[in-house]
Write a structure and sequence with these properties.
mainly beta, OB fold (Dihydrolipoamide Acetyltransferase, E2P), 5-stranded mixed sheet, 10% helix
Length: 161
């Protein structure tokens, strides 16, 4: 059993999807790139916006507006956070299409609060918790749980092609 020190500080990439702010642990982020060319792949779910070439590897791009049911149109999204997700069998690389990457923030484990049951429009299992920073709530995302097993399998297959 692993124990976590409550005063442990970790670094997170802070980003925005629509009007909501999220954070992902920097240990999951491979790179942040500006969207220049996205290739649409026919017969994929609406969640997958297409693929990009990342260092010679085909990387599927997930539209975070669709995942988090954001009201904002995705046409203005131009940043991709390339992450590595832990799958039971191996790691899967994917891009997260977001509106803006703000900065890297430091959070203490003890400051991350549980996600409330009411008033959230998407599955709270995607989140590790929430933190109040400068009078603004930031949702700490668990990138390993953002996609279902079926969705992750689709991303994995696209990356192989």
């Amino acid at each position: 059993m692993e124990t976590i020190a409550i005063d442990k500080r970790s670094s997170y990439v802070n980003f925005r999807v629509g009007n909501e702010h999220f954070a992902i642990g920097v240990n999951k982020v491979l790179e942040i790139i500006l969207l220049e060319h996205l290739t649409h792949v026919p017969n994929t779910s609406a969640l997958i916006k297409g693929v990009v070439n990342f260092r010679g590897t085909i990387v599927p791009v997930v539209d975070m507006h669709i995942r988090f049911k954001s009201d904002k149109e995705t046409s203005n999204s131009n940043m991709i956070i390339v992450v590595e997700v832990n799958n039971k069998e191996n790691n899967v690389m994917m891009g997260l299409l977001v509106d803006e990457v703000n900065d890297v923030i430091e959070l203490e484990f003890k400051d991350i609060r549980s996600v409330p049951d009411l008033g959230i429009k998407y599955n709270p299992e995607y989140l590790e918790g929430m933190v109040d920073m400068n009078d603004q709530f930031i949702m700490v995302m668990d990138v390993d749980r953002v996609l279902s097993v079926t969705e992750l399998a689709e991303v994995k297959e696209l990356g192989k092609e």
